[in-house]
């Protein structure tokens, strides 16, 4: 238990730390990776370079500090982060390392403003926050390891099939090398892939949503090749998977994780909306629903630039033709001449209010969506304008969680 005085010190210093947020987090990562270079094998270097992770970790510590006397209210957020940590293999012994380096960074940046009293209060508060994470993650580790077909850490899987889904997206069907059972997952969940890339000094871990229904003898992931642009290097893991990983090769996976999951007890109509490669968790939900709940009405809306990069179209259209519960709707913002000639899409442009008004059967539905950040922001604001209750809006970020 923290003393009332410690709680007051924490609450009164959160704004100061937030003001120097970026400097502290930059310093924090410098210190962390200098003292513990082995952690470079776990953190995503691209997220670091783009500043996404800097903002996520330390800001979460400050946010938690604001709720230091009622941490139970932020447990849902802790769980979401805990899933990511569990899938990356973050363990209790990592927490003191982060704590020490965060405090050292606070001290370095604030200088004499960071009195011993303040540093002591933050050390205690970090300990309480870390314990909340460690507790949540211990449960997640236990679930992942104890469930049938579950496992600890990273397990070797063999690429059974590699299937091109569009010009930029390829699916990998992965079977366990030990030929034992694999854990059932919830549609919407992801696995982490740990990749050793020749010539790279660190391993790279990336998350990929499972794109088929659970209960199959394989896991399917569908990966977009991130080619990069002039000022951006090509994506490390996605390009390596596309170019170098072939049938028969082995990849390392951690057990399924994530709290973006389909509520299968809800029988109301469901609307699954995706942009680009964000379709993967929603395709898993779609396959699951048609296999398990023939009565639930499903609207599947997908936005792609055009037919060349539109993955899994035939697969989804086939499901819709076999199951009258499914309606599909394609929005292309840059259709090709061939798309126009063959009339394969329903709307030219983005998913907008007009799309929702046309496609969504009623306002008493649940929404699940995933896609690029601008797509998610626009959609979220449309759903709010459309007066959809917060509890019916579910989404996943394909990167560190951001704010919509
Ligand atoms: C929960 C979750 C589920 C996901 N599911 C999927 C999925 O189903 N399918 C899928 O394809 N992806 C998915 N992702 C994204 C995936 O994890 C990877 O982020 C993606 O494949 C890119 O990884 P990479 O190693 O190829 O690229 P990275 O090397 O990580 O680079 C990522 C991006 O950053 C840019 N970049 C790299 N370095 C710099 C730099 N120095 N300066 C500026 N820009 C830079 C690159 O150009 C690239 O566009 C998911 C992510 C999450 C969090
Ligand atoms: C109380 C302490 C911690 C807090 C509040 C915290 C918070 C966060 C947050 C908010 C994210 C982003 C989640 C997302 O992707 O949506 C994250 C990711 C991550 N965390 Fe933590 N974290 C803590 C401790 C740790 C520790 C001890 C480690 C291990 C050294 C760690 C390693 C990571 C890694 C590797 C990622 C993913 C990074 C990436 O993909 O770029 N975290 N954490």
TrEMBL record:
PROSITE patterns, alphabetized: FAD_FR, GLOBIN
EC number: 1.14.12.17
Annotated GO MF terms: FAD binding; heme binding; metal ion binding; nitric oxide dioxygenase NAD(P)H activity; oxygen binding; oxygen carrier activity
Binding site for heme b: 85
Keywords: Detoxification, FAD, Flavoprotein, Heme, Iron, Metal-binding, NAD, NADP, Oxidoreductase, Oxygen transport, Transport
Cofactor field: FAD; heme b
Segments forming domain Globin: 1-138
Alphabetical GO biological process terms: cellular response to nitrosative stress; nitric oxide catabolic process; response to toxic substance
Site (Influences the redox potential of the prosthetic heme and FAD groups) location in chain: 84, 396
Site residues, Involved in heme-bound ligand stabilization and O-O bond activation: 29
PANTHER family: FLAVOHEMOPROTEIN
Family: Belongs to the globin family. Two-domain flavohemoproteins subfamily. In the C-terminal section; belongs to the flavoprotein pyridine nucleotide cytochrome reductase family.
Protein name per UniProt: Flavohemoprotein
Species this chain originates from: Brevibacillus laterosporus
Gene label: hmp
């Amino acid at each position: 238990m923290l003393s009332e005085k410690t709680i007051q010190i924490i609450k009164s210093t959160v704004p100061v730390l937030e003001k120097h947020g970026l400097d502290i987090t930059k310093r924090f990562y410098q210190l962390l990776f200098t003292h513990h270079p082995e952690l470079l094998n776990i953190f995503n270097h691209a997220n670091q370079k783009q500043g996404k992770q800097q903002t996520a970790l330390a800001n979460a510590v400050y946010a938690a500090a604001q709720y230091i006397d009622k941490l139970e209210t932020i447990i849902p957020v802790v769980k979401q982060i805990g899933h990511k940590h569990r899938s990356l293999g973050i363990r209790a012994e990592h927490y003191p390392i982060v704590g020490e380096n965060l405090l050292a960074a606070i001290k370095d940046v604030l200088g004499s403003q960071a009195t011993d009293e303040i540093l002591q209060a933050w050390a205690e508060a970090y300990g309480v926050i870390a314990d909340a994470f460690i507790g949540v993650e211990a449960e997640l580790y236990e679930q992942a390891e104890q469930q049938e077909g579950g496992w600890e850490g990273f397990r070797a899987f063999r690429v059974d099939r590699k299937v091109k889904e569009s010009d930029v997206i390829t699916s990998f069907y992965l079977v366990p090398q030990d030929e034992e059972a694999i854990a059932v997952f919830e549609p919407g969940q992801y696995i982490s892939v740990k990749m050793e890339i020749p010539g790279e000094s660190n391993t790279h871990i990336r998350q990929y949503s499972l794109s088929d229904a659970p209960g199959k003898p394989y896991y399917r992931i569908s990966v977009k090749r991130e080619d990069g642009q002039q000022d951006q290097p090509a994506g490390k893991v996605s390009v390596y998977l596309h170019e170098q990983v072939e049938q028969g090769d082995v990849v390392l996976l951690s057990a399924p994780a994530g709290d973006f999951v389909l509520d299968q007890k809800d029988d109301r109509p469901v609307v699954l909306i995706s942009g680009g490669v964000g379709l993967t968790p929603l395709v898993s939900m779609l396959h699951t629903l048609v296999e398990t709940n023939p009565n639930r009405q499903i609207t599947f809306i997908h936005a792609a630039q055009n037919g060349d990069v539109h993955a899994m179209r035939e697969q989804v259209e086939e499901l819709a033709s076999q199951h009258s519960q499914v309606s599909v709707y394609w929005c292309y913002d840059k259709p090709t001449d061939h798309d126009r000639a063959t009339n394969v899409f329903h709307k030219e442009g983005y998913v907008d209010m007009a799309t929702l008004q046309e496609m969504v059967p009623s306002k008493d539905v649940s929404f699940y969506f995933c896609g690029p950040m601008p797509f998610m922001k626009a959609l979220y604001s449309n759903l709010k304008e459309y007066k959809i209750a917060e509890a019916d809006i579910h989404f996943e970020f394909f990167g560190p969680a951001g704010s919509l």
